[in-house]
From TrEMBL:
Similarity section: Belongs to the enoyl-CoA hydratase/isomerase family.
Stored CDD domains: crotonase-like
Taxonomic lineage from the root: Bacteria, Bacillati, Actinomycetota, Actinomycetes, Kitasatosporales
Origin: domain of life: Bacteria
Protein name: Enoyl-CoA hydratase family protein
Length: 244
């Protein structure tokens, strides 16, 4: 069963996370298939830009707790989005949690509908937003991230835009995306690639500098007793033992 739906229109390749029954959680299989689809799009001279979107009511619920990806594989996926020689545009009409926010931060442009909601839920299950910090800390407002990282609160598209997680939000996301995609279609392919390289240089510096340490941190936290309790509590739909 395919987990990534691919369509193309006027040189824009759309990759849709297509595991709605799992809330498009980042399983090992989904991460691998998305990485392959991005590689194909990057090599295809007929592709001018990539739209990353989803089926169902959730863009991504974060890591799949039953089949989590290896942290190194998630780092490689995020880096592939950042390094892709084509602009990657996130189209969000549903909820985004935890690791899903890393996908948004890795994209060059991110647009969401007013129905979208966001939350860094890692601390509530005993882990930290470690690997996804590689693109996030380079692009988002540090003061706003402090609150969202530390509390796990849910916030809306207006707040996500102010924080720097989104480029824009609108009631009709496709209407908001139309001029963006038109602009990308009018741009010269080589110029787009070099301009993206300018924009992502500092993000890639963070990957080079911090990826190994953050990957190790993620692996250590996911293997911790608190993470086991937090994940068990989440699956059992109860509060973890530390809630007061």
């Amino acid at each position: 069963m395919t987990l990534i739906a691919r369509t193309r229109a006027r040189a824009v390749e759309t990759l849709a996370l297509d595991a709605p029954q799992r809330r498009n959680a980042l399983s090992a299989a989904l991460v691998g298939e998305l990485a392959d689809a991005l590689t194909d799009a990057g090599r295809d001279t007929g592709v001018r830009a990539v739209v990353l979107t989803h089926t169902g009511t959730t863009f991504s619920a974060g890591a799949d707790l039953k089949d989590p990806p290896d942290p190194e594989a998630l780092v490689a996926l995020l880096r592939r989005i950042v390094e892709l020689p084509k602009p990657v545009v996130a189209r969000v009409t549903g909820h985004v949690r935890a690791g899903g926010l890393g996908l948004l931060a890795a994209c060059d442009i991110a647009v969401a509908s007013t129905a979208a909601t966001f939350a860094f839920t890692e601390v509530r299950i005993g882990v930290a937003p470690a690997v996804i910090s590689l693109p996030l800390l380079s692009r988002a407002n540090p003061r706003a991230l402090s609150r969202h990282y530390l509390t796990g609160e849910r916030f809306d598209a207006a707040e996500a835009t102010a924080t720097g997680l989104l480029t824009a939000y609108a009631e009709d996301v496709d209407t908001a995306l139309a001029p963006i995609l038109d602009g990308l279609r009018r741009a010269a392919p080589d110029a787009l690639a070099e301009t993206k390289r300018l924009l992502t240089a500092r993000v890639l510096e963070a990957f080079d500098r911090e990826a190994a340490d953050l990957t190790a941190l993620s692996a250590r936290l996911f293997a911790s007793p608190q993470a086991r309790e937090g994940m068990t509590a989440f699956l059992e739909r109860r509060d973890p033992a530390w809630v007061v």
